[in-house]
Design goal:
heterodimer, A: 107 residues, mainly alpha, 85% helix, 0% strand, elongated, B: 297 residues, 2 domains
């Protein structure tokens, strides 16, 4: 019984992660501005990766490989937002009229 | 010397010779006409015109030469393709026992349980040595092109280092924190992949890439000055050369002692060769980043 529930949850997570990645790729192709596209890509990097890897952990069962997968999630969640942040900062640095287009937080 | 009015008596001729001639004599005129004409350097316009005609000639012949070379190359390559064995035949050289031998006897032949490592580092080690040499040469040529000399004008250097310090001061706090947390783990993982290539997926190339990427992350977060604390240009060159020399020496020794059916005396050799390849690859990647971003190492 509990096995069936875990498998179903894993499948659901993987499918949802695939859907998230699909929307991220769609956004990458449909959106044209840097920050919009960054937003779309960040969704896939954070939520999509987490859902797919968590689903794989559930489907595979607890093992050393699952622990390594958790480490991969941790690494990606640490690095992907930083990359997005740097891209956004570069956009703010290089576009002169950015403050007329959107709000920029001053630091 | 012509006859006629010049035929004076020898005394007047001697006097005129001693005094020096006001006017050139016939002989000297004759000699001057026989002489080669002096060629002066062409003027600017003339030079330009000559260069232009030369360029015109070159560009007239360029398509012809290009078509000729391309056709020759196509002929040679197509001829080579025609000589190749047909696809899917049983007697093709791909269907021989080499692959099976690699898979079955790889462990006892080379002492590494990872078949890929056994192949690229032992059976086909010269190939990998060539690849390492290519990486080494690539970094060397990029250094020749882009490396800034230390003996520059002082003002320029001082201004540049001030700008660098400015950049470091404005460095992003988020990036700095993340790099501060992640860099040790990246280096740890790189060493793990490097040293574990003998028994598991990994090895010199992937481990070296991770090591170089960690170095790039560190230097982009904290500035190259802090990387230079542990690795200045001399150390960098030493590590690079050391890796390649270690590989060449070890593989040469391996060819003489371990291969050719002799017992394998160098069981841990794949580990050291992995390390050497990793050093070369890491130096290559970090060197490209450092040279293309600031021109210094």
């Amino acid at each position: 019984m509990i096995d069936a529930v875990v498998t179903a949850a894993g499948l659901a997570l993987v499918l949802f992660g695939l859907f998230v990645f699909f929307s991220a790729v769609l956004g990458l192709y449909r959106l044209h501005y840097v920050l919009d596209r960054m937003h779309a890509a960040a969704v896939g990097d954070a939520l999509g990766i987490f859902c797919i890897l968590a689903g794989l952990i559930l489907l595979h069962g607890w093992s050393l490989a699952a622990a390594k997968t958790l480490l991969i999630i941790l690494f990606l969640w640490l690095t992907s937002p930083v990359a997005s942040h740097l891209i956004a900062e570069m956009e703010v640095e290089t576009v002169p009229d950015i403050r007329r287009e959107c709000e920029v937080e001053e630091r | 010397m012509s006859n006629g009015p010049e035929k004076q008596d020898w005394r007047t001729r001697l006097v005129s010779w001693v005094d020096g001639d006001r006017e050139p004599k016939d002989q000297s005129l004759f000699v001057m006409e026989q002489r080669h004409r002096r060629r002066f350097l062409p003027t600017e316009e003339e030079h330009e015109r000559r260069e232009k005609t030369r360029l015109h000639r070159f560009f007239n012949w360029y398509p012809v030469a290009a078509v000729f070379i391309a056709l020759t190359l196509v002929t040679v390559l197509l001829g080579t393709v025609l000589q190749m064995p047909l696809f899917g035949q049983e007697s093709n050289p791909i269907n021989n026992e080499v692959a099976e031998h690699y898979l079955e006897h790889g462990e006892e032949d080379t002492g590494s349980s990872n078949a890929v490592t056994a192949m690229i580092l032992s059976y086909r080690g010269f190939d990998t040595l060539g690849e390492s040499c290519v990486l080494f040469l690539a970094v060397t040529s990029v250094m020749m092109l882009l490396l800034k000399d230390g003996e520059d004008e002082d003002g320029k250097l001082a201004r540049r280092s001030a700008r660098e310090a400015d950049q470091e001061e404005h460095g992003d706090i988020i990036l700095k924190r993340t790099a501060w947390v992640l860099t040790p783990f990246i280096f740890l993982f790189a060493i793990y992949v490097l040293l574990n290539g003998e028994t598991s997926p990994g090895g010199g190339f992937s481990g070296g890439t991770i090591l170089g990427a960690g170095l790039i992350l560190f230097s982009s977060a904290f500035g190259q000055r802090n990387v230079r604390v542990i690795m200045d240009r001399k150390t960098y060159s030493f590590i690079r050369t050391f890796g390649l020399m270690l590989y060449a020496l070890l593989y040469g020794a391996y060819i003489f002692f371990g291969a050719n059916g002799l017992p394998n005396y160098l069981a841990g050799m794949a580990l050291l060769i992995d390390l050497a390849v990793g050093l070369v690859v890491a130096c290559t990647i970090y060197g490209f980043y450092a040279l293309f971003s600031t021109g210094e190492i």
